[in-house]
Amino acid sequence: MRWIGIAVPGIAALVIWLWPLTQDEHTEDGYFVLAVSWTPSWCAAEGAARGDARCAAGAGRGWLVHGLWPQHEAGGWPEFCDTDHRPPNRRLTSEMRDIMGSDGLARHQWAKHGTCSGLAPSTYFDHTRDAFEALAFPEAIRAREAPLRRAPDEILTSFRAANPGIGPDMAILTCRAGDAQEIRLCLTRDLEPRRCDAQLLARRCQAEKIALPVKP
Q1: Cα–Cα distance for residue pair 83/123, rounded to 1 Å
Q2: How many CB atoms lie within 10 A of CB 33?
Q3: pLDDT (tens digit per residue) in 120-149
Q4: Domain extent listing, the chain
């Protein structure tokens, strides 16, 4: 249990006892969300303005891992948890560059989400790679010469058809400014597809049609 002391003029300091905050709770009994970003959408929204290498002409990046996020069973997620594990070394984060696009992203995802997984950094990144490499991304939702416009459900239907183990309500598609943003896939602790919680399902894209911008 935590306490916070609050000084009030003319009154003795009050002590308020609080239950542990959600972001300090590990979710070893929860599940995972694998977030896979459509890189051209991220580049259009913010990455290109940063001069990120993933957005350079000819980079050819399509679907890349944003992160593997521990999720509470009833909804919500912890962040930046206390852990006994040491941070990942540079070799470990650099090995994630091919599927995450950046050492810096790998380090950030460990600090924000991996610390809440209950896993050692090497195991956390192994899980991230295993979950991503088990997926197939059909040509229908890959980079092309012209932007693709589809209903969100059409994009998810193509994705599920290429990955038969992923049923309805096991993945959502998010969008931003009219562009497809991320596929978020719900997984058990053993990395098997499972139903997402109601809070996550409510975050699915509600647009009638969205674009998959062309690759950089």
Answers
A1: 14
A2: 24
A3: 999 999 999 999 999 999 998 986 677 889
A4: 24-212
